[in-house]
Amino acid sequence: xxxxxxxxxxxxxxxxxxxxxxxxxxxxxxxxxxxxxxxxxxxxxxxxxxxxxxxxxxxxxxxxxxxxxxxxxx
Length: 74
Fold this sequence. Notes:
Strands 2-3-1-4 form a four-stranded antiparallel β-sheet, covered by helices on one side. The longest helix is centred in the middle third of the chain and has 13 residues. The chain is built from two helices and four strands, in the order βββαβα. The protein is 24% helix and 38% strand. The chain is of the alpha+beta class.
């Protein structure tokens, strides 16, 4: 896997203090969910994010690849 942009959807609205644990990811709360969006360097980075979510006891709803910001403007 090469670098790409992803969104990770979590059940519940987590606080801004958790943003430090997901460095480089934007945190957005929407209708009872939290969406983390950003660039994922490689598969190990993605698995690390998923593992951190599990360690915090937060339910992961989905992991979705997204277009990079550059792709969305072309």
